[in-house]
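In this supplementary section we document a worked example of the pipeline. Step one takes a protein sequence of length 114 as its only input; no multiple sequence alignment statistics are reported here. Step two produces a three-dimensional model, which step three serialises into structure tokens for compact storage. The input and output of this example are shown verbatim.
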Amino acid sequence: MSWYWSAYKGVKAARRNSMPNYKYEDLKTTPYLYGAQYLSELYSCAKTDGQKEMIYEYMEKHDVVNPEYDGYFALSEEIDKDFEKMQPTGWSLDQKNVIKFPGMVDEDDPSLPF
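The serialised model returned by step three reads:
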């Protein structure tokens, strides 16, 4: 009997630690602002970068990504740190949003001899 109970508790915990995808999709369409605690819970259960990005875009849409709103700002900082870890170092975007690698020659640069 005890292993049944352990299995039940494990399944219950797994369900608690995952959110259905529709909750993330709902962030795109809902006109009202969810609380910072709910968004933090969504973030901690997010499995993909796309889900994390939806949360960040949702907070930007509602203009709460600033130090005036403590909970939202702390979450936005956490998301920023998470995405900084994933970005390769040395990359940059030029004015045309083209990725430039270190040492890459710019063909449109007028100072080039050719």
